[in-house]
Amino acid sequence: MNADMDAVDAENQVELEEKTRLINQVLELQHTLEDLSARVDAVKEENLKLKSENQVLGQYIENLMSASSVFQTTDTKTKRK
């Protein structure tokens, strides 16, 4: 009877260790997911900022090009006459 109880105790101990290991693994995965989620949010925010900056720079370049005679279109037909 003592041997049976020892076997049951050993089995319960193994189950408890396995449950503890699984709980720790789940907690670690949750932390990893939280970190990844925070990183995704930061990248999205940076992306929006860069898109806005690109629009401003694009408009600035267009304004410079329209103000410069180098980038003005020329009508070749009228110049040849």
Integer average pLDDT:
89
Tally of separate helices: 2
Tell me the total number of β-strands: 0
Report the major sheet: none
Strand content: under 5%
Estimated radius of gyration: 34 Å
- Tell me the structural class: mainly alpha
* Oligomeric description of these chains: single chain
Q: SSE order, as H and E?
A: HH
Shape verdict: rod-shaped
Q: What is the helix fraction of residues, given as a range?
A: over 70%
The end-to-end span amounts to 118 Å
What ranges have pLDDT less than 50 throughout 5 or more consecutive residues? none
Coiled coil: 19-53
Family: Belongs to the SCOC family.
Membrane topology: Peripheral membrane protein
Subcellular location: Cytoplasm, Cytosol; Golgi apparatus membrane; Golgi apparatus, trans-Golgi network
Walk me through what this model shows.
The protein has 81 residues and is an all-alpha fold. The protein is 88% helix and 0% strand. The chain has helices spanning 2-67, 76-80. The mean pLDDT is 89.
Observed structural traits:
81 residues; mainly alpha; 2 helices; 0% strand; rod-shaped
Would you kindly provide a brief summary of this structure?
This protein has 81 residues and is an all-alpha fold. It is built from 2 helices and no strands.
Topology:
Elements: H1 2-67, H2 76-80
